[in-house]
Amino acid sequence: MIKEKILVIGACGQIGVELTLELRRIYGGSQVVASDLREENELLKGTGPYVSLDVMNKEMLHVQVIRQNVTQIYLLAAILSATGEKNPNLAWSLNMQSLLNVLEIARDEQVKKVYWPSSIAVFGPTSPRVLCPQHTIIEPITVYGISKYAGEFWCNYYHHRYGLDVRSLRYPGLISYKSEPGGGTTDYAVEIFYDALSENRYDCFLKEDTFLPMMYMPDAIRATVELMEAEEKNITVRTSYNIAAMSFSPSEIGAEIKKHLPGFEITYQPDYRQTIAESWPQSIDDRIARNDWHWKPAYDLAGMTVDMLKYMKPAIEARNRKNGKVH
Ligand code: NAD
Ligand code: SER
Prior knowledge:
Shape: globular
Structural class: alpha/beta
Bound molecules: nicotinamide-adenine-dinucleotide, serine
Oligomer: single chain
Helix content: 40-55%
Radius of gyration: 19 Å
C-alpha cells in the first residue's frame, strides 16, 4: 500500500497549526509537510518537515509536489472576510489563484485527494437566515464570499471533468486557543476570551444580538479528517458541505463567560464587520453532512467556553511571561 504524503499549505494559520498536528498524529510526522509564507509556527517545530512556500508561485508549488511525492493537498491559504474587504483585489487574486494552482497541479501529478475549505460566507442577505439549507439562494456580498462560492464550483468542475477527488466544508466561525485567527468577522468569539482573561472586559465590534454559526476547533478538525477519510461513494456534495455546531450572539457568549468570571463586562462598538455579519445566516442546516458521512458536533457553547477558559489561561500567562509582563 502506498503511504500517504500530505502537503498542508497555509499550515501556520488558525486552522493549519491544529490540522497539521492532527494529520501528523494520524499519518506520522514525516508524512505531513507543513508549508506557509510565514515562519514556522512554534507548535509545529520538531513535529515534522516544514517548507517555506508561496502558493501563488505555481512552479515552486509544482516542484514541491513532485519532490515530496505528494498524494494529498490541504489548501488553507486565504484572505478572510474582514481583511478581504480592505483589499478586494488581493483577496480575489489569492483566494482564486491559489485554488486554481493546486487543482491544476493535483490533476497533472495524479494527486489522489485535495481538501479546500469554503465558508458560511458564501451565503448572502437573500439566503434563509435560520437553518440555512445546503442548496438555496446564494448571493454573497463580500469579496471573500464571492471567492468561496466561485471556488466551490471550481472544485465541483475538477471533480466532474477530471475525476479529481476534491472535498470541502463550509466552516462556520472557528474558535480556538492554540493559534490566533487571521482577519475574519467571527474573530470576536476568540478575542473575547483573550480580553476576558487579561482585562476582564471586552469591547465587541458586533452588536449584542448578532447571531452567527460557530464551531470549536476540535470539532472542525475532526470534521475535516472524517470528511477526508469518508468512502468516496458517500460523498454526494462536490461543491462544499454545510456543517454546524452552535449559534450564539455576543451577548450570549458574554453571559456564558460571566458564569466563570463574575466581574466580566462586555460593551459594543459595531464597525464595518457588522454589515458582513448581518449578511450571513444565523444558523446552518447540516443534515446532508450528517447523512452522508455521519457528521456530529461534540461541543456546544457551554462546553466550548469551559474548555477555552481552561486552556487559554496558561497560554495567556505564557505569552505575558514572554512579553515580560509577568515576572
Ligand atoms: P489564517 O489567515 O489564520 O491562515 C492562513 C495562512 O495562509 C496564514 O498562515 C498565511 O500566512 C498563509 N498564507 C497566506 N498567503 C499565502 C501564500 N501566498 N502562500 C502560502 N501561504 C499563505 O486562516 P484560517 O482561519 O486558518 O483559514 C484557513 C482556511 O479556512 C481559509 O480558506 C479560510 O477561508 C477557511 N475558513 C476559516 C474559517 C475560520 O473561522 N478560521 C471559517 C471558514 C473558512
Ligand atoms: N470565520 C470566517 C470569517 O469570519 C468565516 O469564513 O471570515
